[in-house]
Every structure is written in structure tokens, then in C-alpha cells.
Amino acid sequence: MSHVRSAVRAWRLATVAFVVLVCALAWNRRAMAGAVESEASAPPLSIIYPRYVESGDDPRADYPLGLLRLALDEMGARYTLRPSDTLMERTRAVAALKAGAIINLAWVGSNAELEHELRPIRIPIYRGLLGYRLFIIRRQDQPRFTAVRSLDDLRQLTAGQGLGWTDVDIFQAAGLPVETFRYDLLFRLMQQGRLDYFPRSASEIYAELAAHAADCPDLVVEDSLLLVYRLPLYFFTNKKDEALAATIEEGLRRAYDDGSFLKYFNEHPAIRKLLAEAHLDSRRRIDIPNPVQSPETAALPDTYWFDR
């Protein structure tokens, strides 16, 4: 008789366990369905970035925006991208991002102070090519730069840079004379001969010159020098916007892991044009330190950096 009672108890326990399991599975399916429905009905990420030029397309934005789309697509995110209605220089864009106003994303050359005040996404957008500097000069000034053989020689010339750019601190620390102006003005000032050279990222210089060719026909890429310092261009968000930053960061890491980041880098027209035309290996290279980089940037894995 005891065997019968034991069997009945066992059967009842099994029945209860089965019912609990069925209920749990049903609840889980409803929860998952609700999560999917909630995700599908949630509004897309609205990303607003700084508009740096007064009118027309900014050639500097093409590569970063394409990489941003790649990262977001890696995450399966729904999103919209648009420039700010307000025209901004770097200084104003950084101030707006700190305040959590007007924009919620920017890509700028990094330094330790900026990484403390904002939320950096520490994966160099251009793999460090931002710190490979070629010079925009007037065509007739090429002989002056052909004669430059050292950092001391370069110190005899005056560079132009944008307002608030991280590069200004790097140039000044190296003893290189530099004057700052609004980005749009720099090309006209170069054309007028009011500055000696305009150092630009090797990844941007050709697109920028093409965009200003009609208004500044005398400007060319200097053909003998390469100035190098470690300077990453990062995406930044406001510190409070951790969800957006984490999504982009994870998307970029996944893109690195599956090879799509390097594929995008190697196949982008601006990068291909650079590597084909810049002849980085044959230029006289002048290296200067970057005293404003953060310890975290200095410790980044070598795989993130371009090396030529």
C-alpha cells in the first residue's frame, strides 16, 4: 500500500512540475514577444551631429558617417542621422555636447581633458590617420617646403588650424608657430598667402582640396613632407548618453572582429585615394609627441592604429 501512495505522490509532483514548466514556457514566450513588439515599436535612435560648414556637403563627414552606419547596422539598430540646424565650430560643438543640447554625437580629435568631460568611444575612426599630416600650400611655395629637412626648419613657417582643434596644443608644444581661424576661412587665407601651410589629415586632405578647387585654384598638396603625431578621432557622446555610446562602441568592436571595419577602411574612396597618391613611404617624416593624449588612448592595442 505504501508503494501505491509513493507512486501517487510521485505522479502528483511530476504533474505539478509539468504544469509549472508549461506556464513558465508560456510566460517566457509572451515576455519575448512583448520585448520584440516593444523593440519594434520603439522610436529609432535620433542622432544629431554638428554641421561644420555653412552650405553644401562637408567632405569630412562622408567617412565618419559611413562608419557610424556600419556600427549601428552591426547592432541591428534603427536610427536616423542628421546634421544640426546650427552651424558649429569644434569648440561650440563640444560645448553643446557637454550641455546635452542641440547635438548628441560628435567626432573630434581627442585629448585627455575631452575624454574626461565627455563619453569617448575609444576606437580611432581613421585608425590614427588623423595624425598623419600632409600640408595644403600654395603651388608657388613648394620650393620653400622642399628645403625643409628638420623640425627646426619647419618652425620657421606658420601653420593655420581651426578654432579649438586639439592639434593647436600639439603644435605649440612642439614649438611650431600656429594661427587659428574658422575652418571655412582657412582655405581663403591660404589662397591669399596669409598663412604658410595648412596641415590636414592625410585621410581628408584630397577631398577637402577638391571641394575648394574652384575658389582656391592655387592650393595643392605639398609633395615632400609628412608630419606625424598620435592623434585619434573618436566619436563622443554626452556622459549621460551611455546607451547610445555603448551601442556604437559595441558595433565598432564587432565590425573590427568580423573584418568589416578594416574592409570599410581599405575600400573607402578617400582612403584609397590617399594611399595611392600620398606616397607616405617616400616622404621626409617628422615626428612630434602628443602631450595631451590620455593614458587610455596611449594604451590602445596596436591593431587599432595604422602604421606606415
Explain what you see.
- With 308 residues, the chain is an alpha/beta fold.
- It has two domains: 45-128 and 232-278 and 294-304, Periplasmic binding protein-like II (D-Maltodextrin-Binding Protein, domain 2); 130-228, Periplasmic binding protein-like II (D-Maltodextrin-Binding Protein, domain 2), CATH 3.40.190.10.
- It has helices at residues 2-41, 62-74, 90-99, 112-117, 142-146, 151-154, 166-173, 183-191, 205-211, 242-258, 260-267, 269-277, 295-298, and strands at residues 45-51, 79-87, 106-109, 119-121, 132-138, 159-162, 178-181, 198-201, 219-221, 225-228, 233-237, 284-287.
- α7 (166-173) links the parallel β6 and β7.
- The model is unreliable at 16-27 and 31-39 (pLDDT under 50).
Quickly list its features.
308 residues, alpha/beta, D-Maltodextrin-Binding Protein, domain 2, five-stranded mixed β-sheet
So what's the overall shape? globular
Q: Helical residue percent?
A: 40-55%
Radius of gyration: 27 Å
Please tell me the CATH architecture of the largest domain by its name.
Answer: 3-Layer(aba) Sandwich
